[in-house]
Design goal:
This protein has about 425 residues and is mainly α. The protein is built from 15 helices and 3 strands.
């Protein structure tokens, strides 16, 4: 850390990142014009304590949307825009060709930013309309300015969030979207633990804290082992190939990774399971639902079974993109390389697909067990905080990738600063 902080470029990037995060959290605590601050504060606190779905919704928005803050939508509009643009890029040939051009990625990012502001305007208008009709906790929580001021404030807040994201990407550390999302969920999570202490006492708080620490330890250890593991398929080059420089020794390998996506499959499974509950609360005239899926019991056997199954299926589906078997087989054939004992072409692609399926068999099961671990532990200990297990997984899923990416980027900057004099000396001599 001392070596990192002595590097001027690292200090500058760290300062920019900290300032952007502070501005983001200030905006998430600044009330929108036209919002009754006192009524929203009391109603949001009661809803978070009484309804686990509202607690998770409060966590995902950094505790801002239920208070109708200026940056109340958080990074949700940009997440929706990024997912939409990714689907359109894969489906529309024009966008796919643009992404492959020099400078095309920058244009795709600009399109994503514009789409994020549009999504923020739609979400802000929906939130203001829900508040005006009493669909948010607290009923009528608007003052004289009305829903138009709230919608305009949330739309402007989305534009500010996009600017902060791009500032972190250009001059700060880490990926702006992941960093701000981790910032908002980590800011709310301690309050969820405090609610457990207030409602269940010191014993429940100690049990919940033990579950949080155990889940964090096992998740970090499991993901580290899965991420570092890979199956190396040996590849041999022909000794004489015109136009192809074979590596020294004539042998290399193709790495088939075991896992690269963190807790993404677990978060997808949790989102799918909570969609019916969120829709039931936003449905006009629905009241407070009490069904199995509209009011999910996080410690029930059916919920744990569904969560395990969805996590396994989501990870199994995402593992298909870890290695392009057809493209790799064609590239090996063009370069005159082959897997020993396997014929080039289609047999090589089939063999790589077989290795990929065998290697990817373990990761879905491990992720499924990690998904149900905190919920099952809280249920066995009798802790009355059904949303805490899901909150732990969300915080870990947001934090692990952000921390790894930030540390790697900081170390790379420090190494570049350390070896810069040697590089300048070598270029001057040449």
């Amino acid at each position: 850390m001392r070596a990192l902080l002595r590097t001027p470029r690292v200090r500058t990037k760290l300062l920019v990142t900290v300032v952007a995060v502070l501005l983001y959290r200030i905006g998430q605590n600044a009330p929108s014009p036209g919002a009754d601050v006192a009524a929203l504060r009391d109603a949001a606190a009661a809803a978070v304590r009484d309804d686990p779905v509202y607690a998770l919704f409060d966590l995902l928005t950094g505790g801002a949307l239920l208070h109708l803050s200026v940056l109340g939508l958080g990074v949700l509009p940009h997440v929706a825009a990024a997912v939409t643009m990714g689907l359109l890029t894969g489906a529309v040939p024009r966008l796919r060709a643009l992404a492959a051009e020099p400078g095309g990625a920058a244009r795709i990012r600009r399109y994503t930013d514009v789409l994020a502001v549009a999504a923020g305007a739609a979400m802000g208008t929906a939130a203001a309309a829900a508040a005006s009709r009493g669909r948010l906790p607290g009923g009528d929580v608007l003052t004289g300015a009305g829903p138009a001021a709230v919608a305009a404030s949330l739309t402007a807040g989305t534009a500010v969030t996009v600017l902060l994201l791009r500032l972190i990407d250009a001059r700060g550390f880490g990926h702006g979207l992941a960093l701000l999302f981790f910032t908002q969920v980590s800011a709310v999570f301690p309050r969820l633990l405090a609610d457990v202490r207030d409602t269940g006492g010191t014993g429940a708080f100690a049990a919940a804290l033990a579950v949080v620490l155990l889940t964090a330890l096992l998740t970090v250890a499991a993901l580290t082992a899965l991420t570092q593991a890979e199956r190396r398929v040996p590849v041999q080059y022909a000794r004489r190939m015109v136009g192809v420089r074979a590596p020294r020794g004539g042998k290399v390998h193709i790495p088939v990774p075991l896992h690269r996506t963190g807790l993404r499959a677990v978060l997808i499974a949790l989102a799918v399971l909570h969609v019916p509950a969120l829709a039931a609360r936003l449905w006009p005239g629905g009241g407070l639902p009490d069904g199995l899926w509209t009011a999910p019991l996080h410690g029930s056997a059916w919920f744990l079974l569904a969560l395990f199954t969805l996590a396994v299926l989501a990870r199994s589906a995402s593992s298909l993109g870890t290695l392009d078997v057809a493209g790799t087989a064609n590239r090996l054939a063009r370069e005159g390389a082959f897997v020993p004992g396997i014929r080039p072409g289609r047999p090589t692609a089939d063999y790589l697909a077989y290795v990929r399926s065998r290697v990817g068999f373990t990761a879905p099961l491990v992720l499924g067990l990690l998904a149900v671990l905190p919920h099952a532990a809280l249920a066995l200990l009798g802790v009355g905080a059904p949303h805490l297990g899901t909150s732990v997984l969300i915080v870990l899923g947001a934090g692990l990738g952000t921390a790894t990416r930030t540390v790697r980027q900081a170390v790379a900057e420090q190494k570049m600063h350390e070896y810069a004099p040697c590089l300048r000396t070598g270029s001057a001599e040449n």
